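COMPLEX REQUEST
Ligand: zinc ion
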Amino acid sequence: MNFCSHCGKPVTLRIPEGDSRARYVCDHCQTIHYQNPNIVAGCLVTSGSKVLLCRRAIEPRLGYWTLPAGFMENGETVEQAARRETVEEACASVQQLYLYSMIDVPHINQVHVFYRGELVGESYAAGVESLEVRLFDEADIPWNELAFMTVRRTLEWFFADRREQLYPVHSQALPPSRPVQ
Ligand code: ZN
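STATUS: Structure written out below.
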């Protein structure tokens, strides 16, 4: 951040009085520009024994498979965000949603939250951010072409839980991924 979004003057990065972290501070209008983690909300949509995946039409991870998910907007609940993203990316509606996984990704300042729920009817299609949308059996999941570690982890939990027929809420923090050697 270089300029104040309130008054347009340059900002400086410093620890405000009474605070413990460096913030972008405008010395002209005194605004402190706090930056906080973003929430990504999505759905693990099932249809019978199958799971709905979207192949991404946008960066990052263009061409890789993901659960429908995206950034929460102001004014909506996490569940509403998950439903909206599922409509936008997979043109799919889900019945009752159950909170399923919450994964902290602190190295990129994100929290990923996934719900699980059953597809309404058999209607789904690629939205503008997807190249294709497909239902996969567990045996056909493209494990090596998944877009994000949080998606992989949520799918791993789901298939393990399904064998037990018990779906507790999972939460975990992801360590930074190692650079590819
Ligand atoms: Zn300002």
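REMARKS: The two ends are 32 Å apart (CA to CA). The pocket of zinc ion is lined by residues 4, 6-7, 9, 26, 28-29, 31 (CB under 6 Å).
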